[in-house]
């Protein structure tokens, strides 16, 4: 543990190592604070629910795009095009 964490623990203050970039322990201080404010030590955060898409995808358009992708993948590439 680093010096800051050790000093906070000596004073009986809560401390968490966290990283906003990698989301490491990002929710821990908020969970601790929520438990403390609500006086519920067993409080847990629930995960996000997957929302229904706002629009429907037409399967015919998907199939057409897949066909175009297959056709594009089958086209031969000239060596001259690669060099230029």
Automatic annotation (TrEMBL):
Keywords: GTP-binding, Nucleotide-binding. Gene3D superfamilies: P-loop containing nucleotide triphosphate hydrolases (3.40.50.300). One of its GO terms (molecular function) is GTP binding. It comes from the Eukaryota. The keyword DNA-binding does not apply. GO terms for cellular component: cytoplasm; nucleus. GO terms for biological process: protein import into nucleus; ribosomal subunit export from nucleus. This is GTP-binding nuclear protein Ran.
């Amino acid at each position: 543990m680093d010096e800051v964490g050790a000093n906070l623990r000596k004073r009986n203050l809560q401390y968490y190592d966290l990283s906003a970039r990698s989301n490491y322990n990002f929710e821990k201080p908020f969970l601790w604070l929520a438990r403390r404010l609500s006086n519920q030590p067993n409080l847990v955060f629930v995960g996000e629910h997957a929302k229904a898409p706002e629009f429907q995808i037409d399967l015919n358009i998907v199939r057409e795009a897949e066909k175009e992708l297959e056709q594009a993948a089958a086209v031969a590439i000239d060596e001259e095009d690669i060099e230029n």
